[in-house]
Specification:
Blueprint (H helix, E strand, L loop, with lengths): L1 E11 L11 E12 L4 E9 L5 E3 L8 E3 L1 E10 L3 E11 L21 E9 L4 E8 L6 E4 L6 E5 L4 E4 L2
Antiparallel strand pairs: 1-7, 1-12, 2-3, 2-8, 3-4, 4-5, 6-7, 8-9, 10-11
C-alpha cells in the first residue's frame, strides 16, 4: 500500500536581523518507518528530496539498503520572525512481523520520530554550518551559530507527523 505522511515544523527567532545568517531548511530528513524489505520495525529511514528511494538504516545483522520511500513535497514559508516547513513523504508499506522482535508492523511506527536539517552561513566567520531539530528533544530548543554563538532560531514545539492515508 502507498502511504503518505505530512511533516510540519516551525522555528521562530531573529531570522532576518542585522546579523543575518541565511538560515534555511535542507531538503533531507530522517524518519522512523517499519521496513518490509529487511523485515524490521522502527528503522531510521534517510530521505533526500529528488531521489526516488530512501535508505533504511537496517541493523547490525543487515547492512543499510534502499527502500521504497521518497519526499514527494517540500514547501517552506519564510517570514521575518518565523520559518515553517511542510514536507510530504510517500512510502510503500506492507504488513509483516518484525524479524527480531516478532511484533506486527504498522503503517506509521508506534513512536514516530523525525529529524529535520537546516543550514546557515555565518557572516562573521565566513563559514557555513548545519543544525538539526527532531521530535524527541526537550523544548524549547534554542539553536545558535557554531561560529559566533548568535541565536539562529528557537524550536518551541516538536515537529508534527501526521498520516495522510
Amino acid at each position: 500500500m502507498l502511504r503518505s505522511v505530512e511533516i510540519t515544523a516551525e522555528l521562530t527567532g531573529p531570522l532576518r536581523d542585522e546579523r543575518f545568517h541565511n538560515l534555511h531548511w535542507q531538503k533531507r530528513l530522517e524518519l522512523s518507518l517499519d521496513c518490509f524489505i529487511c523485515g524490521r520495525g522502527r528503522r531510521t529511514t534517510a530521505l533526500q528530496y529528488g531521489l526516488e528511494h530512501a535508505l533504511c538504516s537496517a541493523d547490525d545483522a543487515s547492512p543499510e539498503h534502499p527502500t521504497a520511500a521518497r519526499i514527494a513535497a517540500f514547501d517552506v514559508t519564510d517570514e521575518r520572525e518565523r520559518t515553517v516547513l511542510r514536507a510530504v513523504v510517500d512510502y510503500w508499506w506492507a504488513p509483516f512481523r518484525d524479524a527480531k522482535d516478532n511484533h506486527a508492523a504498522t503503517a506509521l511506527s508506534h513512536t514516530p520520530w523525525v529529524r529535520l536539517h537546516l543550514g546557515y552561513y555565518c557572516p562573521q566567520a565566513r563559514q557555513s554550518g548545519t543544525l538539526s531539530i527532531q521530535t524527541n528533544m526537550v523544548r524549547p530548543v534554542r539553536d545558535t551559530c557554531g561560529h559566533c554563538d548568535h541565536l539562529l532560531a528557537t524550536s518551541k514545539d516538536a515537529p508534527a507527523i501526521r498520516i495522510l492515508n
